[in-house]
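Module 6 notes. Inverse folding takes a fixed backbone as the condition and produces residue identities as the prediction. Think of it as a translation problem where the source language is geometry and the target language is the twenty amino acids. Below is one complete input and output pair. Work through it position by position during the lab.
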């Protein structure tokens, strides 16, 4: 039992608080305690006028070791019948351990409880095979009222005096004037709270008057925030429930902090008599007197808490700065000043925020100061909608930022390329066909997945190849791929090396010839035949092996209706494919999974004047020339 209940049995201060709290949870309005005095033979007892228990309730609650109050009775304590219009209370207890506190004062002890006309008396003692034994001693009916009394069976003393017990109770149970506790016939009042633990302040409320603020400091934090927080009194009556959550749902203090489990702020505000709701559950939200009083009181409470936490805040600032010193030292003076100001202001304005949380935010800001975008990221985050935050979280949960950027950069590059192709290849007035050739050096992937390989490049000897084939006195570009101008367009050659058994380059295994025709040239058999001449001459000059595979694309704005089928040579090792620019762009779209339409509102496309609706209309045009897709 001692191991199970712990300090509830061993510590007299905790024991008496638990027993008084049981009376509070039973909705007692009065608790009378007789403090034990061994020298005078006076035994301990505590009696309340709470709801009491029927025999069935007693057996369920007292005999169950791990009685769960919240499950059995809910998270509110309802008043007895004669007080049915009173507000429900926030209960103190949760797991029923508080009832074992009586073992601190006596073993065994007796419990007398009466309700619904029946009074029953029990004896409770520690067990040997079980934690405790309960024996019913007597029962009688026709009893009026309700309540519970615990009586020690021996006049065993305790290390705590009656005055000390008044102090412990006064520090926790004075918020509600309708809940009074007496010890040896004397009521516990604010006078029982030691002077170092109580402070009384007058708070001026402009245009409405003054309110009294009593601050009670238990000096050490309790296990929970129960019987702590802000309690509002009007005409000696509690309004709502005591706690750290305001009537406007503003949380005054985080319940996890030490201060939340240590302080009580009792506000006597009779000036708010006309602002109280009819059921006394709170105040009229838009009442001017309430709004002004709440603001003034909350400001005074925050001022008090700040004054107490000054040293802790200084230590928090020091810890944050030491933790991030290496990063902050890289900042320029202006950025360092901004960062230090942020740390000071956050810790001063939010004293309850943990040092770890401040460090995390400060680290982010330090990295922002080091970045080239500075606080532009915060502007972007500020503009996000709620759903965008969820999408961003899912993105970062599945991708690293750098990996996502690499992927999106590649998509952006290709979509921009598609956009350029769409604009320039559809422009029949385009005279400088040579300007299109550089686009194709980045567009091999449009022809098919086999051309994604980075091995597709022109070798250094390709300039000589071009000069030999075309007899042109214009060197090809040293960049890949090499290409030359023709009277009716331009041509580019893109090769992938072949290797011998020693892994040395011994020729070209795969060649792509991309010939781009001017808008006024209709692609027919002559143009297809010209492409074959290029390949044939390469073969004759020994620049291509018989095993090499060649694909020629002849692109233009129009294809002769009778010549839209591919032409093959050398048993299929050479394929010549006529293709309109429209088909090429649509093939690019298909390879990009239609993303240009899906992402038509993306800034990088909008800034280039992308007409998404126009593009969609173009896709509905006759598709007779899509045979090569």
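Target side of the pair, the amino acids:
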């Amino acid at each position: 039992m001692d191991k199970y209940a712990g300090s509830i049995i061993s510590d007299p201060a905790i024991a008496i608080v638990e027993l008084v709290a049981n009376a509070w949870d039973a909705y007692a309005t009065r608790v009378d305690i007789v403090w034990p005095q061994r020298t005078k033979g006076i035994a301990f007892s505590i009696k309340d006028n709470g709801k009491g228990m029927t025999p069935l309730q007693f057996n369920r609650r007292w005999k169950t070791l791990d009685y769960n109050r919240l499950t059995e009775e809910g998270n509110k304590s309802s008043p007895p019948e004669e007080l049915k219009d009173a507000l429900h209370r926030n209960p103190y207890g949760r797991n029923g351990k508080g009832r074992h506190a009586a073992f601190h004062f006596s073993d065994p002890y007796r419990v007398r409880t009466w309700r619904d006309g029946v009074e029953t008396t029990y004896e409770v003692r520690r067990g040997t095979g079980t934690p405790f034994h309960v024996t019913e001693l007597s029962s009688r009916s026709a009893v009026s009222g309700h309540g519970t009394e615990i009586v020690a069976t021996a006049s065993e003393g305790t290390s705590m005096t009656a005055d000390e017990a008044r102090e412990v109770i006064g520090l926790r149970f004075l918020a509600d004037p309708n809940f009074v506790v007496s010890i040896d016939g004397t009521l516990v009042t604010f006078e029982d709270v030691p002077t170092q633990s109580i402070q009384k302040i007058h708070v001026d409320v402009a245009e409405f008057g003054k309110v009294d603020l009593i601050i009670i400091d238990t000096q050490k934090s309790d296990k929970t925030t129960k019987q702590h927080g802000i309690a509002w009194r009007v005409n000696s009556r509690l309004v709502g429930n005591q706690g750290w959550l305001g009537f406007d749902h503003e949380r005054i203090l985080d319940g996890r902090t030490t201060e939340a489990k240590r302080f009580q702020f009792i506000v006597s505000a009779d000036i708010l008599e006309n602002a109280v709701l009819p059921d006394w559950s709170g105040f009229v939200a838009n009442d001017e007197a309430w709004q002004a009083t709440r603001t003034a009181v909350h400001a005074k409470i925050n001022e008090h808490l700040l004054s107490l936490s000054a040293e802790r805040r200084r230590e928090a600032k020091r810890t944050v700065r030491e933790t991030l010193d290496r990063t902050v030292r890289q900042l320029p003076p202006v950025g360092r000043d901004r960062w230090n100001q942020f740390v000071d202001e956050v810790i001063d304005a939010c004293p309850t925020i943990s040092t770890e949380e401040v460090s995390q935010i400060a680290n982010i800001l330090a990295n922002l100061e080091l970045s080239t975008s500075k606080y532009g990221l915060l502007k972007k985050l500020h503009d996000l909608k709620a759903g965008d935050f969820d999408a961003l979280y899912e993105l970062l949960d599945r991708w690293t930022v750098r990996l996502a950027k690499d992927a999106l950069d590649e998509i952006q590059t290709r979509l921009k390329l598609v956009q350029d192709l769409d604009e320039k290849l559809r422009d029949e007035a385009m005279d400088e066909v040579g300007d299109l050739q550089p686009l194709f050096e980045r567009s091999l992937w449009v022809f098919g997945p086999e051309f994604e390989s980075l091995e597709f490049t022109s070798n250094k000897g390709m300039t000589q190849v071009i000069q030999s084939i075309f007899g042109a006195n214009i060197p090809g570009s040293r960049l890949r791929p090499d290409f030359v101008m023709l009277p009716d367009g331009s041509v580019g050659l893109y090769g992938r090396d072949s290797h011998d058994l020693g892994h040395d380059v011994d020729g070209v295994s795969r060649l792509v010839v991309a010939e781009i025709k001017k808008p006024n040239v209709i692609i027919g058999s002559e143009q297809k035949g010209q492409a074959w001449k290029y390949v044939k001459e390469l073969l004759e000059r020994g620049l291509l092996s018989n095993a090499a595979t060649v694909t020629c694309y002849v692109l233009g704005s129009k294809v002769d209706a009778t010549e839209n089928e591919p032409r093959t040579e050398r048993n299929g090792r050479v394929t010549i494919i006529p293709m309109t620019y429209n088909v090429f762009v649509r093939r690019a779209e298909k390879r990009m999974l239609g993303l240009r339409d899906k992402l038509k509102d993306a800034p990088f496309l909008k800034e280039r004047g992308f007409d998404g609706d126009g593009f969609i209309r173009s896709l509905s045009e006759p598709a007779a020339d899509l045979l090569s897709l």
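Reference fact for the lab report: The radius of gyration is 43 Å.
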